[in-house]
Amino acid sequence: MSELSLVTPSSTLFKEYDIRGVIGEDLNRDTYYTLGLTIGSELQDIDTSKKILVCYDSRASSEIFAEALKRGLLLSGIQVIDIGCLPTPVLHFAMRFLNCPSSLMVTASHNPIDYNGLKISIAGKNYHGALLKTLYYRMIHHQLRVNEKNEGAYIQYPSELLVAQYIQAIKADLSLPQKLRVVVDCGNAVAGKVVPQLLTSLGCEVIPLYCDVQETFTNHHPDPAIEENLADLCRVVQEQKADIGMAFDGDGDRLGVVDNKGTIIPSDRLLLAFAAVVLNTKSNPTVVFDVKCTQQLHDYILAHGGIPVMTRTGMAHIMSSMAEHQAILGGEFCGHFYFKDRWLDYDDGIYAAARTLEMLGEQANDVHTYFKKFPKSINTSELKIPISEHKKEAFMRQLLEQAPKFLGGTIVRIDGLRVSFANAWGLIRPSNTGPWLTLRFEAKTESDLQQIKLLFRELITIINPFLELPF
């Protein structure tokens, strides 16, 4: 393999939650080598354990980039524990199980196949926002610790053993009252290494769909937040007369669910069902959710004695808010779920799948009938407006300045702009994972939905009439 060189990547790689970019344009082996040395230098300064876990997803570039990353880490003099190609939740489990407070995950999660990235945890902290900027500052000012004569130790921990330990931990936490017939769609991504094995061990009849792990996602992109990616799952659930269908994203930390009639259950509606469980078992529980979630979730929690807390989208913000408010449950519209009542303190789409089956196995009704009991509304999926990264900030600044003049209503600015009326609400926010603005609308009637869309359309067009609006 060719020699590696230190480089200075563009600051645009450093997103709000992690590092992401296009392979060949923003990212190459030298980028990861430099990141490894930079992160190793940071860890030398603040983590007394001087060790870090490294994991990667199944993308074609991920193992190659992970190798370069490890070479940079070892050059800094820290110990590297390589757990191989596994889902992000298994990495988070390994941090606790192996008592290692720092970890790196080479993944671009749900981004297109030509992307890759890096999720960073150092000394028990998820690096996002200002913490990511400190790494960039260290990099550009060459505050790097090179220990050529005393490189760190390299340990390879068997991934199969870790998967077995992860599955055993979940089985010790729960049991299924009914053994359900489950279609599992892993989108040919790394969750296929764990989910079928876990659900089978729990007693389910598993019907695998795209569970063979591939370097490219040949059947559909593994993003369960996009309805078209669930089309095959919906069809197979009906064909196989299954009880439920489950889909996972590119690194296994997000979950999508389809009921026995092949109907998609939105993630905020699934979170509402989880909230109903904790409201029945805990006194005045706090539930945290992001700004994209349905108003029905807020209202249901409040009406049943809980404390609803809305916060910004993103793992770091959800976890921070959960810690601040001592919440036992959290979730995001895109399919992240966080359980602190019985599980570890991180988002885990695989564990969420097991908890879903536990919850539904306790019901006499089928899945479709069970979800009928929860309140519904008329809403859109998450919509996207393409916009370049350098124009995104200026657009949002103008939008926030102009919004009160055109919209009225109750304005929430914690993450973009969410405007609520008595019968409807709308949201527009800058994506932190790609070059677009994301929107969502919800209303009590179709007429109210069209009205809130119109108000947002008029405001957006005034600020930038050239944007391509998907509504």
TrEMBL record:
CDD domains: PMM_PGM. Its EC number is 5.4.2.8. GO terms for molecular function: magnesium ion binding; phosphomannomutase activity. It catalyses: alpha-D-mannose 1-phosphate = D-mannose 6-phosphate. It is an enzyme of class 5 (isomerase). Residues 388-456 form the Alpha-D-phosphohexomutase C-terminal domain. InterPro entries: A-D-PHexomutase_a/b/a-I, A-D-PHexomutase_a/b/a-I/II/III, A-D-PHexomutase_a/b/a-II, A-D-PHexomutase_a/b/a-III, A-D-PHexomutase_C, A-D-PHexomutase_C_sf, A-D-PHexomutase_CS, Alpha-D-phosphohexomutase_SF. Keywords: Isomerase, Magnesium, Metal-binding, Phosphoprotein. Pathway: Nucleotide-sugar biosynthesis; GDP-alpha-D-mannose biosynthesis; alpha-D-mannose 1-phosphate from D-fructose 6-phosphate: step 2/2. The keyword ATP-binding does not apply. One of its GO terms (biological process) is carbohydrate metabolic process. PANTHER family: PHOSPHOMANNOMUTASE, PHOSPHOMANNOMUTASE_PHOSPHOGLUCOMUTASE. The lineage of its organism: Bacteria, Pseudomonadati, Pseudomonadota, Gammaproteobacteria, Legionellales. This is phosphomannomutase. It comes from the Bacteria. Its cofactor is Mg(2+). The keyword Isomerase applies. Residues 13-123, 165-262, 267-375 form the Alpha-D-phosphohexomutase alpha/beta/alpha domain.
